[in-house]
Design a protein that fits this description.
This protein is α/β, with parallel strands linked by helices and 428 residues long. It has twelve helices and 19 strands. Strands 1-10-12-11-13-16-14-15 form an eight-stranded mixed β-sheet, with helices on both faces. The longest helix is centred in the last third of the chain and has 20 residues. The two termini are 34 Å apart.
């Protein structure tokens, strides 16, 4: 069962990150990484790439920072106010100070006619323009007048920032956990996944690891591209990976496969979701969504799938002010941490064994491994041991056996450990 304390701690982190205005560059990203570091109790390795740096087919843009923004009526009242919600400004808007009639201002205003009380989230990362977002009912109620328009921001040479935490394991082979840190006050997308990734990193740091586990906290798209450009030597070591997004709402889980569809992470995720039996979904890769598309691109083909609850663009609150603290819960965050942890645990535990007594079925009873009373239905553990012995010819992994037997991975793993301790299996 999900740990209540874990969920409450993650929810508090979401609450603390919620007011920060993040973007693909700027002080909001740095402040977010600062808070993650405090939660981890350990520093992140930070990379600051200067504006103009080529990263694959892209170039690091100017850095954007914002202090204030508003649209004020003639009486000085702010009818749209960045201080009330950082979604009110089109993210990456250029600085503006002007007085405009409503006819000229209106094309710069973005609302949601279908949800007139919600503020949309809009961006202009790679086109120098500006605009405001507001509830449609506010836009519709604006009287014809001259409005004072201010965006007190800077868009100038600076840096793009991302953070990493690398937890060394017995092997240099890596598990990658990646999450985007560029969205402003949006809780499900993606403060929920920042919180889950941070909690998982804190857990894994406190226990032995077979694989090296790398956590990447980077702005979406350009951040992952920048990371790939700087880590060509690391990518071949990635044996499994996940992008995490939208993990705090009540939707069932959806796992999006790698482009190959049969990577270790695909099989681990499918096993975990199958065993939950909770109406979760597994979908094939498609080249849109989150940063899994960067990791799976032809030049890298890193085996990185994506785990989410609410799917990209498919829950009503997506990229709106309704993606707030009420949309996510401590219970769902804890449940998401359980699922991500379980997927990592399967990858960590999966290995091949060789049956050391392959000629016929070994006698388990004399080794204290078999239920002594016969004539009844075989217990699950005994059946799991028989499956492991039957398929452990050095070519089948524990995941192979769990899939073939349709038994829980934990049962197969437990059986293998008993048989190994009883001298009947050896890891290959």
């Amino acid at each position: 069962m999900p740990e209540r304390a874990d969920g409450e701690r993650m929810y508090r982190l979401v609450e603390q990150l919620y007011p920060i205005c993040r973007s693909i560059t700027g002080d909001g990203v740095r402040a977010t990484l600062d808070r993650i570091e405090r939660e981890l109790g350990a520093p992140l390795e930070r990379t600051e790439l200067p504006t103009g740096t080529p990263v694959l087919d892209w170039t690091i843009p100017n850095e954007w920072n914002i202090r204030d923004a508003y649209v004020a009526a003639p009486d000085g009242r702010r009818v749209i106010d960045f201080r009330a919600s950082n979604l009110h400004v089109v993210n990456y808007s250029v600085p503006v100070r002007a007085k405009l009639p409503l006819a000229e201002l209106r094309p710069r205003l973005h609302g949601l006619p279908d949800h007139p009380d919600w503020i949309p989230y809009r961006t202009s990362y790679y086109a120098e323009t500006w605009g405001f977002c507001a509830a449609q009912r506010v836009i519709d109620a604006l009287p014809d007048a001259i409005y004072d328009v201010c965006i007190d921001a800077t868009l100038a040479p600076g840096h793009l920032t991302y953070g990493e935490l690398v937890l060394p394991g017995e092997s240099h082979d890596e598990i990658l956990i990646s999450t985007h840190v560029c969205h402003p006050s949006l809780c499900n997308d993606n403060l929920s996944s920042i919180a889950v990734a941070t909690a998982l990193a804190r857990e894994l740091a406190a226990r032995p690891r077979r694989h090296t586990v790398r956590f990447v906290f980077a702005p979406g798209t350009i951040g992952a591209i920048a990371w790939l450009a700087q880590h060509r030597d690391v990518v071949p070591r990635i044996r499994a990976g996940l992008t995490l997004t939208c993990l705090g709402d009540e939707s069932p889980f959806t796992y999006k496969r790698t482009i190959g569809g049969a990577a270790r992470v695909d099989r681990a995720a499918e096993l975990v979701l199958r065993e939950r039996g909770a109406g979760d979904h597994v979908i094939d890769f498609f080249p849109y969504g989150y940063d899994e598309r960067q990791y799976n691109s032809p030049g890298f083909r890193a085996p990185v799938g994506s785990l989410m609850r609410g799917r990209h663009g498919q829950f009503p609150e997506y990229h709106t002010s309704a993606d707030d603290l009420a949309l996510v819960s401590a219970e769902r965050l804890a449940e998401s941490l359980d699922v991500v942890r379980a997927i990592v645990d399967v990858i960590e535990a999966d290995r091949r064994y060789r049956n050391l007594a392959p000629d016929g079925e070994p006698q388990l009873g004399k080794r204290g491994l078999y239920r002594p009373t016969g004539g009844t239905s075989i217990p699950d553990l005994n059946l799991a041991m028989l499956w492991v012995l039957t398929l452990s010819d050095g070519t089948c992994s524990l995941v192979d056996i769990a899939e073939r037997s349709a038994m829980p991975f934990a049962s197969i793993r437990g059986a293998a450990e008993l048989l190994r301790d009883g001298g009947l299996l050896a890891a290959t």
